[in-house]
What we know:
Largest sheet: 7 strands, mixed
Strand content: 25-35%
Order of helices and strands: EHHEEEHEHEE
Distance between the termini: 41 Å
Structural class: alpha+beta
Shape: globular
Number of helices: 4
Amino acid sequence: MAQTISAITLLADRPELAVGWAELHWREWGDEPGREELSWWVDAASQAIQRTSVPAAFIAHGPAGEVLGGVGLSQFDPDERRDRSPWVVGTIVRADLRGQGIGQALMDRLEAWAIIVGIEQVWVCTEREGRAATFYQQCGYERVENLITQRGEEAGIFTRRFSPARP
Length: 167
């Protein structure tokens, strides 16, 4: 049965949702060196609590407050590309709910917020090919570079420019 989004909330308004967002990350990427403990993910998620600047995050949740997914915006990611900012980070949707529009809704909310606070362009570093790269391209991101990270991973760098809000 499809889960419905009750709301997409700025994490700064509901900081208790950081744990649920962190748990999604931990279940997906908790085997990364140095990130094996859930507490690492909770600490990272809990920092994205700004309302009008970076770092910020948006969490999609259901009627009972269950976290369905989330997306963040951070100053830098990866370290190899500190010449541009901000970066979309932590985009994740609960595995059983992927493909139902939650990720797109999160990206739309992030874009609307970015325009309001004056962010004209964002970047994302993700897998070079595959599901995540395809997702970002479907959301209007353009590949600008391929990169081998310091950790030896193949990554794609994508960007998106936003149209300013019209009066």
